[in-house]
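Researcher: Sequence of Phosphomannomutase/phosphoglucomutase follows. Predict its structure.
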Amino acid sequence: MTTPPPPTDLSHIVKAYDVRGVVPEQWDERTARALGAAVADVLVLEAAHPAGGADRAAPRGRRLVVGHDMRPSSPGLVDAFAAGAQDRGVDVVLVGLCSTDGLYYASGALDAPGAMFTASHNPAQYNGVKLCRAGARPVSLDTGLAAVRDHAAASLDAGGPEVVDERGSRTEQDVMRGYGEHLRSLVDLSGARPLTVVVDAGNGMAGLTVPAVLGEAAGLPALPLDVRPLYFELDGTFPNHEANPLEPANLVDLQRAVVEQGADLGLAFDGDADRCFVVDERGDAVSPSAVTALVALREIAREREADPDAEVVVIHNLITSRVVPELVADAGATPVRTRVGHSYIKEEMARTGAVFGGEHSAHYYFRAFWGADTGMLAAMHVLAACGEDERPLSALVADYAPYAASGEVNSVVDDVPAAVERVRQAYAARGAGFDDLDGMTVTAPVGSGDEEQGAPARGPGGRAWWFNLRASNTEPLLRLNVEGVDAATMAAVRDEVLALVRADA
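Model: Prediction complete. Tokens:
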């Protein structure tokens, strides 16, 4: 008797928040077609008919918006994915080459679920899909992605999607001008002083979106910006450097160009252009926490102008500098602290009606952008702030970066729980504060302990230091972030914690 093959398992490519893997080794166009049918079933048809039933594929006019980045594998995967959605009777609107936040715009403006084909900053052999419900609402394993995974696996085991009698249509729509107009309606740069800005697109999608939004490529009026392009050629093989500005090595070219060209600032985008990093006129990287604080205060002011009595909320994750909640509170708004991860930020944005949210990883979320993240809108806020102030950017952001931060320091450890417990015991003996919202956050003790060390009374969150120790979800790693009232305090805490973490190495 022949043993049937094991059922298809897509858990190796369907992650917590998206689909991602090597093409074609881990997934291919056949998988993409099954995923398209599954997304049509789960995010389009079941959303319209929660009770299910045999007639759920019957309604016409149900749309799914699909965009893609510049990776060589994207067009073929998109074609197969769209065919799978059409198989289930769903109409597909192809918006073509776009950034991830451009896809979110299309999902919001058209009020339709969306699929963005991208692997963000991953190497060229990777590709993936970021999904959202209508209105750019997020999708994670807990809110639909697991169902998409299981539907797609069942489809593959059955030899392909079941095709309804009347397949869906496929149309194309250019949303670039609308995307640019919407962003410009939220931040007016027309009256700013002239600025010279170097932009490193990393051969990613910012090479398309920056000329459209900050320039005249989409037919919008000229802005007082002299944009100097670096690596604007769309090339998913990333011939110049990885499109991941979080790594300092990938900022070197931008930093050099800003100084050499005497620019006012520099901007660097990742591959799908949903994250933006900022470099000041001296070539120094501006902390994403400082950008979060700057944008938060501008969004609070905009909200107060519209409604002076409004209760304004700003979201920040727990690794963001403590200057963010301090400045938000000083401005009369309410800071809300969350776990790390865009799904948590977006959930809190929706729950609290927050006007803005920021992460240490340079993801920035806006209520005026359907609660989704957009690096371009954050960049426009920075440009506007710089254009409204005669001071250089370095002076402008100094107030938003009063503390010293370590950045994320990773340690490979054999026994993660044992390493965390060593740290916990060492600092508990000193009366430090603890919370376990996401990993372990430890804050300096208040009172004689710090005073004996000569630490200032005022520091991040009113303490001389704090640190967070988080375990990786996928590797035997501990991630450490430390912030101190000054560089010496931060370094001392960082080195002591690392010694405890790595004691069994």
